[in-house]
Amino acid sequence: MMTTTMSAAAANHDAELVAASLSGNRDAFGQIVSRYQSLICSLAYSATGSLGTSEDLAQETFITAWRHLRHLRERHKLRAWLCGIARNRINSSLRRDGREPVTAADQLEAVPESASPEPLPHDQAIGKEEEAILWRSLERIPEIYREPLVLFYREHQSIENVATALELSEDAVKQRLSRGRKLLAEEVAAFVEGALARTNPGKAFTIGVLAALPLTLATSAKAAALGAAAMKGGATAKAAGGFGALSSILSPLVGLIGPWLQYRMLLDTAKSDDERLGIKRYFRKLAALIFAFGISLFALVLLGGKFVTTHPGWFAVTLIVLVAGFVFAAARFAMWSDRMFSEHRMQRAAREGGLPASPVWEYRSRLELLGLPLVHIRISRAVASDARQMPVKAWFAAGDSAYGVLFAFGGFAVAPVCIGGIAIGLVPWGGIALGILPIGGFAFGVWAWGGFAFGWQAFGGCALAWNAALGGLAVARDFALGGIAHAAQVNNPIAETFVRGQVFFQKMDVLSRHIGWLNLLWLVPMLAWWRKLRQLKAATHHDAN
Predict the structure, then answer these.
(1) What is the pLDDT of residue 458?
(2) 3-class DSSP state for residue 378?
(3) Which of 45, 336, 349, 417 sits between 20 and 30 A of 74, alpha carbons compared?
């Protein structure tokens, strides 16, 4: 009576879990996996004699169940339905491999000796030799007795649990267990009991199944609907496709326009032939530095496929040193060029008895808040001048050096949201960006996105993170997905489930598809800046004439 009551309660709970799973609740399906993983794995092991194969078949069973869950009409019969799927998968596997269950295990003599005394990845694992002995002891027992025996020791020696799982009476289970034990040789009985207990699937198995599931039950339907819309050439599909294609074209073009525009802007600030030659020399040396960095990174990537696996710590250190060295060299180079331009100005001033003040265009709003203007923009032709040394400070600031309470734009920009050659803030975007959510060529922060991204979580061409990294080259402590990657969980379903489940990676993945449009946020202001510089240059020439 007690077993019947518990079975009814379990069936009702199963129906509730099925309903929750159908609504997209993956945790509910995780409870289903946890509840029946031991049963399904035991059925598969009893038929195949291979622990690895049994878990593979069990995973396939649960994934198939997830995909076809909506076809289960009698939800309270979930256990029987899962067992039916499992037996179909088992029979298909046996037919495909062309073997009988009793010959599934490797011969004991064929099992190689372990090359290392180290244990397998988890403490409960058993060795290949033990597995072979285990099956040699069990394969001689008829399946009608073997199934309850395997399940009994995996269900903590509970007759009630076995009876519920196999839908048998407790008396029938006791009889089959008694007969099964007698069929086991006395010398191996104790070993079999301990080995079966240690191989019971646990939390890792549940995570593995959930990691392999589609994101939602409706994934296939949504994909089919989108595909149909595209094939029909609907207006929405065409617009989305055109937008994405145009974004992909814009992205590399903007990447080429940026450096060229910076080069032209600097040339327009030059006031002498010496300065123009100095600017050209600066860009040639900068190009050589970038080329050397690119070659070094390319060499690291070529060697990285093996190096990241054999020496992950050294690989990460090498990558950090390489990037830090480049950033340091580029910063030193910029400081050197700044001094060089200042010396040119001083030499010219000495020759000509002083220099005229650099033309400046400036806008400062009348409205002030807490002593700062709402908007302050300063554009100067000076490469190194007093106008540049005095930073622009406002709620919305723009200048060679800009500090904003809310937003800043300039060569050096500091604000909660800012865009600049060097940008520091909560959400900075620049050649070098430092902040909470930095975006840039070199991004350093908590959640970093960039060509070279370093943070707690990192997304980019080269991503180095503590928690999770996603990129062409990805290194992290915990999770990593990438062409060349290293982490505790790397390029596997568990890593993919974690990474894809993080809001940061979801949003960055969407934004990265439209990076061409996002680049307009800095390209349009930069073009306007350049236009104003050319106007100042023309005005200077007009005054000189």
Answers:
(1) 92
(2) strand
(3) 45
Q: Do 402 and 419 form a contact (C-beta atoms < 8 A)? A: no
449-454 long-range contacts, CB within 8 A, separation 24+: 449/508, 449/511, 449/512, 452/323, 454/320, 454/323
User: What kind of fold does domain 2-113+121-213 have according to CATH?
Assistant: Rna Polymerase Sigma Factor; Chain: A (1.10.1740)
- And the tokens for 356? 């005229």
CA distances from 298 to 291, 304, 472 (A): 10, 9, 12
Encoding tokens for residue 456? 């707690």
Residue ranges of domains in the chain: 2-113+121-213, 272-354, 360-527
**Single-letter amino acid, residue 294:** G
The whole-model pTM stands at 0.47
> Quick check: 383 and 373 in contact, CB under 8 A?
no
Query: Tell me: the pLDDT tens digits for 299-345?
Result: 766 665 566 566 666 666 777 777 777 777 766 766 776 666 666 66
Longest Cα pair distance anywhere in the chain, in angstroms? 113
Euclidean distance between CA atoms 531 and 146, whole angstroms: 84
Handedness of CA 12, 15, 16, 17 (dihedral sign): positive
Cross-strand pairs, 361? 379
Distance, in Å, from the CA atom of 441 to the CA atom of 457, rounded to the nearest integer, reads: 16
The Cβ of residue 509 has, within 10 Å, a number of other Cβ atoms equal to 13
pLDDT, tens only, 5-27: 545 666 677 888 888 888 888 88
Pairing assessment for the beta strands 439-445 and 489-490 based on DSSP bridges: unpaired
CB 452 within 8 A of CB 444: no
